[in-house]
Amino acid sequence: MRKFAAALLSAVCLLAGFAGTASATPASARSHFYSVPSLPWAKVVDRCIGGAECGGTENRLYFTLERPAYLSRLEVRANDDVAQRHNAVLRVYVDGDLAGQQDVKQAGSTLSYPLYRFGGQVVLESVSTDGGTEETQVGGVRLR
């Protein structure tokens, strides 16, 4: 019952555009939700996702468009200079489908993901090259 209540509250928060989720995890381990009113759209997010230092794989960034639209490209400024290991991969999902993944450089770079599809939600997830979790510091996002 607790999981259902937390999931229901998370869904309501997502629909209302509130940041964070309703769960028993610490604030540092919460996902962050952003509303995208129109394209092109850019935002400084300055969030750490994935890995033990940043809340694990359940800690993601969600970008929800007010109306589904054609998404041509996503650009993400990110670095993997968070913990002792440096083997992060940043995955991008559009409406639940994997749209791309790229290695994150320790020193940082701008990762460019060609999307070329209609969608209503974009999600960023950080994982490691060996299938585990890994931290990524996301500085900014640009969606067009």
UniProtKB/TrEMBL annotation:
Keywords: Signal. The keyword Signal applies. Residues 1-24 form the signal peptide. This is Secreted protein. It comes from Actinosynnema mirum (strain ATCC 29888 / DSM 43827 / JCM 3225 / NBRC 14064 / NCIMB 13271 / NRRL B-12336 / IMRU 3971 / 101).
